Each structure stands twice: as structure tokens, then as C-alpha cells.
Amino acid sequence: MKTFPANFTWGAATASHQIEGAWREDGRGPCIWDAFSHVPGKVHQNQNADIACDHYHRVEEDVALMKAMGLKAYRFSLSWSRLLPQGRGAVNEAGVAFYNRLIDALLANGITPWVTLYHWDLPLALQLEIDGLLNPEIADHFAHYAEICFDRFGDRVKNWITLNEPWCSAVLGHGIGYFAPGRTSQTEPYLAAHNLIRAHAKIVDVYRRKFQSTQRGVIGITNNCDWREPKTDAAADRAAAERGLEFFLGWFADPIYRGDYPEVMRAAVGARLPEFSDADRALVRGSSDFFGLNFYGGMLASEPTGANVASTVPTGNGGMAADQRVELSDDPSWEKTDLNWNVVPHFCRKMLNWIDRRYGHPPIYITENGMALPGEDDVTVAVNDTRRIDYINRYLEACHAAITEDGVDLRGYIVWTLMDNFEWALGYSKRFGLHHVDYATGRRTPKQSAKWYAGVMRRNGLE
Ligand code: PNW
Q1: I want to staple 125 with a disulfide (CB 3.0 to 4.6 A). Which of 10, 86, 220, 396 is the partner?
Q2: Which CATH architecture has domain 2-462?
Q3: Who lines ligand 1 at CB under 6 A?
Q4: The whole model's pTM is what?
Q5: Rounded-to-integer distance, Cα 233 and Cα 246, Å
């Protein structure tokens, strides 16, 4: 029996755009993912999230699923354009009512809400009118939207995540065009990232000044990072791995925990990497009550040997490949998920330790971890997801070792995802859920992993 600390947070996650559907109902405005997915060729089989899991019409049923598995915490995100259809201006009261129903149902069932303010679904109006994340003014729009959320929901929501994976918005959205808004550039990712970090800091500032002392919640940011393991013991490969981590996680976490971008980035990116003004830096530094981490996999890193280091592989690559100059490869022995992501639980422990050391022993929450498996369109296959159980079990063993043997202050673990959903550019072709969703009927079926995870939560540990 591997027991976790008392009060350890056990959860499952979703995101508004991936599950809600009801894209034009009750006054919801469009977001950049609606526009992007309706452009032919952008999403697998030209699928979109117009209906998705139809969660908007199945809130009570979905909370019942959570209740049935004894879920302790539910991480979900708010659709900005459901609450503010134009991104700014009038509040859509029907949107507020929808999230009130969800939050109240969770609390009535003893489930703690963990709310992400922004999980990539920027109101389309802000993209069209002010160039979205590229405009420095976007930070003020984020803060205004967040203030409305704290005001309306903060009496009941005590765990806030400002942004989900700004790396994805920057690199996949503005670097390689794989995600909305579909832009390709060697400069824009750094601008988008900079404005997102500023937006995060402004949101936190609003919360701390106006709400935190009365509402008594916590607020932080969630970043994603894949581990980089030196391919050989050579100093150049070890440096490449470290550089890869600084370009991935350091890009977003260093400003918050250390006051500026990593030196290696400044040296490599030069004038394309924006500078923080003194006022911004003061807001950014220390602007997270906890360290949110989405962790899935990792790769081997080495000093580039060939001329062509710029990987164009959308998933699992190192981001701004030409700037960071890290060659990535796999160990052929590694098991892979249906997204071709490496199953590397031992890297989870290394990642947690890297964060613990570099950022001064912060409280950490793993806000996403999980796996997609092939063949799960067929519900009879999906329910026998023993590989998913094995995956989560092994990552949790790594978490347990990080806590008990290394002293990492890991306080929670949240599975991606509660139910199969719209997997962005991959449409409905990839399934990560603890519950199977039949998209034709909307029917949800618990997989074996949901039952197994219920036991983990009940025991507060692994057998
Ligand atoms: C995370 N990549 O996304 C997201 O937070 C979820 O919304 C998503 O469904 C989940 O992981 C599974 O993919 C990522 O291509 C999506 O490098 C893609 C990448 C990274 C993270």
C-alpha cells in the first residue's frame, strides 16, 4: 500500500471547448476554436466542437458520473465567450446561470471545483478586433473577464487556474499553426507568450487585491512540460537537455518564480524575446500560489549534429526548435500512447524534482496526466482499458516516490480526462477518457479505469 499525504487532491479534468457543445446556444459568442475548426483541413476529418460531448445539456448526468466514482475534485474551464460573448462588454446571464448550475451541483455532491479561466477558447471578437494574444491590451481584457468570474463564482470556487498551458497557445497556435488561431511565425510565439504571462499576472493581481482576503481561495497557473533526458552522458547532451527544459517550462515559470526569462533564451532569441517593464515584472514575480503542471511524456535530448534541427512534428517536439537547438529522439524500447507520446513514468519523478529545485520547493499540483489508447471508438474495447490503469498507476508510483523519498511538495493529481472529448486538431480520433462517450448518442460508459481510480481515491493511495 502506497499512501498519499492527508488532504491530497484527487481529481479529473475537462475543458469547456472540448466537452460543452451548444456553441451558439443561449447567447454564447464564437471563440477562435469555432472559427479554426470550421476551416476545412484544420481538424481531423473536418470535425468541430459544435456538439462535442453535449455537456451543456448533460451537466447533472455528468456530475452524477463523478459522484458515482467518488471524485474529490473536478477541474473544468469556463468558456469566456459564453460569459462575455464579445470578449468584453455585456455579461451573458445565461452563461453565468449554466456555470452556477454546474458549481452548485458539484458542491451538493461534495466535489471541489477547480476552475481554469482560460483553456484556449479566446472570444473570436478579440482575435478579429485586436489581434488576440498579440496585442498587449489583451492582458487587460483577461483581467476584466477574470474579475467577472471571481465576482460571480468566487463565493463557491476556491481553486483558480488562470491559464492552461500557455506554451500551446504560443507555440502550437502562433508558431506552427497547428492550433487556433493557426498562425506560423518565429516571432509571434514570444509575443503571445509574453502577453499571456502579463495577463496571468494581472488576473492574479485582481484576485489578490479584490477577492482573496474575503473569498480565501488560491490561484495559480498551469504549465505543460515534457521531460528532456540527456541522450548520452556527454556534457553537450546534458546541456542540451537542460536548455530544452528551460525553453519549455522555464520560458513560463522563470518569470513567475525568478523574475525573468531564462538566460539561455535571452541569448538565443535576442530581440525577438520581449522585455518585462518594471511594472510588469513586479506583478509577474511571485504571481502563483501553487505550481500547476500538466505532465505526459518526454524525449531524449542531444546537441544537434545535423544542420536541420528544426523539427516540424507538431506534437512532442521542443517548441521553438531552431532557437533552442536541441535534437530530440526516442528510446525505441519505450511504450507509446495513441498520440505517439512516450510512456515514461520515471521522467515524471525527475520533472517534479527539477521543478522543486529550480523554483524553491513550491507546492505542486499535477493538473493533467493520462493517456489516449487506440481502438476505443468501440465501447467494448474501451471498457477494458487495462493499459490506462497501468499508465496512471505507474505515474502515481513515481509521484509517490517524489513525495516520500525526495520530499517534493506534491499536493494533488488530476487525471486527463473525465470523459472522451474533442481532442483539438485531432478531433474525436483520440480518446483519453475515464468514461467512453458515444458521440452519436451522447451515451457515457465508465471504463475499467474509472472504477480503478475510484478505489485509489477512496484508499488515498495505491495497492
Ligand atoms: C493538453 N502537443 O494539451 C491539454 O491541456 C488538453 O486540453 C488536451 O486534451 C490534453 O493535453 C491531451 O492532449 C496538449 O501537441 C495538446 O504538444 C497537445 C500538445 C500538448 C498538450
Answers
A1: 86
A2: Alpha-Beta Barrel (3.20)
A3: 15, 18, 164-165, 168, 172, 224, 294, 314-316, 368, 416, 423, 432
A4: 0.97
A5: 19
